[in-house]
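Q: Structure tokens for this one, please.
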Amino acid sequence: MPRYFMHLSYRGAPFHGWQSQPNAISVQSTLEDALGKVLRCPTKIVGAGRTDTGVNARMMVAHFDSETAIADPEAVVRGLNSIVGRDIAVYSIRQVADDAHARFDATSRTYHYYASTEKTPFFHHLCWQAPKTLDFEAMNKAAEILLETEDFTSFAKLHTDNKTNNLPCDTRPMAQNRRGWRLCIRDHRRPLSAQYGTSRCRDACGCRTRETDN
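A: Here is the predicted structure, written as tokens:
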């Protein structure tokens, strides 16, 4: 069956995270329901990563297999966007190699954390309302420890299908703008194969995966 990568973004507030779960609405289940209607057959998707309840994704990649080749990917994109609601936006669908994997072929993931020391009615749902007493210089100094760390087993669940917990990462100093502060953390992953050729990034969580044209 041909495999496709889907590029999308979503607002996390209405969903109980990315992953499908019983008795809760998730991004994954919403997309699978829409794909089933558009492709007229049950279709499972696999995301490049998982986000928790309320976390936004500026750019997410997922893959799915179709029983037949999709003749008009843009028409499928339009159909999906007409079903999934305003909190999910599907940007593109692209055929990739049959063994391309949205999760295991990711080359990096980027996480943005936002904090504001000023009360605002406009961005409270997008950032942490932080106390003015926070020492951001000390926090930046502490974040430098991440640059010296590769083994994150202590932060990972055991006995999962993760291939490794060794993930070199880099951080950008917490930067201040007119809305508050932002911390950026990026981990670098070793994809299972090196035969694909590039794209992806997301907010709160972001990443790149490798793709190929068939």
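A few notes: The chain has three helices and nine strands. The beta strands are 3-10, 45-47, 57-65, 88-96, 106-116, 128-129, 169-177, 180-188, 206-209.
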